[in-house]
TrEMBL record:
It is found in: Cell membrane. Keywords: Cell membrane, G-protein coupled receptor, Membrane, Receptor, Transducer, Transmembrane, Transmembrane helix. It is a multi-pass membrane protein. InterPro entries: GPCR_Rhodpsn, GPCR_Rhodpsn_7TM, TAAR. Pfam families: 7tm_1. Residues 46-298 form the G-protein coupled receptors family 1 profile domain. The keyword Acetylation does not apply. One of its GO terms (cellular component) is plasma membrane. GO terms for molecular function: trace-amine receptor activity. It comes from Oryzias latipes (Japanese rice fish). One of its GO terms (biological process) is G protein-coupled receptor signaling pathway. This is G-protein coupled receptors family 1 profile domain-containing protein. The gene is LOC101169890. Signal peptide: none annotated. Gene3D superfamilies: Rhodopsin 7-helix transmembrane proteins.
Length: 328
C-alpha cells in the first residue's frame, strides 16, 4: 500500500483493517458542520429554557407541563448528544471506540422512543381534558403525570436494551472496518420496532386527536349558539372549556409538527435503499430538527414561556421567592 493510500485511511497504522476517510468537499463539510452546530446550540439553549421554566416556577407545575418538560428533556438531549455525535459519525472517522459507539446508539434509541411515548401521553392528556373535563382534575394529577413520564422512559430503556443487546454484548459486531460506527437490525426486528415505535403510537395519536377535534368543534358550535340550558355539569365545564380548547390547539400544532418530522424518517426506514441518498440525509436531519422546532412553538403560543425566558435571562430567578412569581 502506497503512502498516498494510507493518508486516506482513518487509522493508517492498521492498513487493510482501517476504514477510508469520508470523501467530500472541504467547503461542503465546513458549511454542514457550522450549520448543524448552530442548530444544535439553539436546540440546547431553547429546551434548557423550558426545563428551567417548568422546574422553577410553581405555577407551571401542572400535569400538561410535566409532559412538556419530559419532551423538552428529550429534545435537549438530542441537541446536546445526538446532533453533535451524529455529525461526527457521518462526516468523519469514528475515533471514540466501539464501546462509546454502542452506548451512543443505545441512548439515541431511548431518546427517540421516549419522545414518541410522551407524544402519546400528551394526546391522551388533551383527550381527557376536552372529552371529560369534569373528571380531568381527579384523573390527571401532577403525581400521575410524573409516574407516567418515568414509566415512559423506563420502558423505553428496557425495550431498546432488548433491541440492541447483541451489539452491547459483542461490541462493533457490525462494523466492517476500524473507524466506523454502525448498527444493523435484521428485517424481522426492524419491522417489529417500526410497528411498536411508529405505526401503533401514530395510530393512537391520530385517533385521540380526531376525537378531540370532533368534540372541540361541537363545543365551539355550542358556544356560538349560546346554549341556555345550563346545568351544574355544563357550568363547571364552561369554566375550563376556553383554556382547554386553546391548549388543545397549541398541543395539536406540536403533534402535527412531530408527525411531519418523524413520518418521513420512518417511511424512509421502511423503504430502505429505494430512495436517494440525498433524500435520506434530508429526512434524517428533519427528524432531528423537530427538537429545535418544539420550543419555537412554545414561544409563539405560550406567553408564560416568553415571560419565563425574560426572567431567566435577567437572572431574576436567582432572587429569593422567585419560584412563586406569577408567571401566567
Amino acid at each position: 500500500m502506497s503512502l498516498q493510500d494510507t493518508t486516506d485511511l482513518c487509522f493508517p497504522q492498521l492498513f487493510n483493517y482501517s476504514c477510508k476517510k469520508p470523501v467530500s468537499l472541504l467547503s461542503e463539510t465546513m458549511l454542514l458542520h457550522v450549520l448543524l452546530s448552530c442548530i444544535s446550540l439553539v436546540t440546547v439553549v431553547l429546551n434548557l429554557m423550558i426545563i428551567i421554566s417548568v422546574s422553577h416556577f410553581r405555577q407551571l407545575h401542572t400535569p400538561t407541563n410535566i409532559l412538556l418538560l419530559s419532551l423538552a428533556v428529550s429534545d435537549f438531549l438530542v441537541g446536546l448528544l445526538s446532533m453533535p455525535v451524529d455529525i461526527l459519525r457521518k462526516t468523519s472517522c469514528w475515533f471514540l471506540g466501539d464501546s462509546l459507539c454502542s452506548l451512543f446508539i443505545y441512548v439515541s434509541y431511548i431518546i427517540t422512543s421516549a419522545s414518541v411515548g410522551v407524544m402519546v401521553l400528551i394526546s391522551a392528556d388533551r383527550f381527557v381534558a376536552i372529552c371529560d373535563p369534569l373528571h380531568y382534575p381527579s384523573r390527571v394529577t401532577e403525581r400521575r403525570a410524573k409516574v407516567c413520564v418515568c414509566l415512559c422512559w423506563l420502558i423505553s430503556a428496557l425495550y431498546n436494551i432488548i433491541l440492541v443487546k447483541d451489539e452491547l454484548i459483542q461490541l462493533g459486531m457490525h462494523n466492517s472496518c476500524y473507524g466506523e460506527c454502525v448498527i444493523i437490525v435484521d428485517n424481522i426486528t426492524g419491522t417489529i420496532d417500526t410497528v411498536l415505535t411508529f405505526i401503533v403510537p401514530v395510530f393512537v395519536i391520530v385517533v385521540l386527536y380526531m376525537r378531540v377535534f370532533v368534540v372541540a368543534v361541537s363545543q365551539a358550535r355550542a358556544m356560538r349558539s349560546h346554549v341556555t340550558a345550563v346545568t351544574l355539569q355544563l357550568s363547571v365545564a364552561a369554566t375550563t372549556k376556553k383554556s382547554e380548547l386553546k391548549a388543545a390547539r397549541t398541543l395539536g400544532v406540536l403533534v402535527i409538527v412531530f408527525l411531519l418530522c418523524f413520518c418521513p424518517y420512518y417511511c424512509y426506514s421502511i423503504a430502505g435503499s429505494v430512495l436517494f441518498d440525498r433524500f435520506s440525509e434530508f429526512v434524517y436531519y428533519l427528524f432531528f430538527f423537530n427538537s429545535t422546532i418544539n420550543p419555537l412553538i412554545y414561544t409563539l403560543f405560550y406567553p408564560w414561556f416568553r415571560k419565563a425566558v425574560k426572567l431567566i435571562i435577567t437572572l431574576q430567578i436567582l432572587e429569593p421567592g422567585s419560584c412563586e412569581t406569577n408567571i401566567l
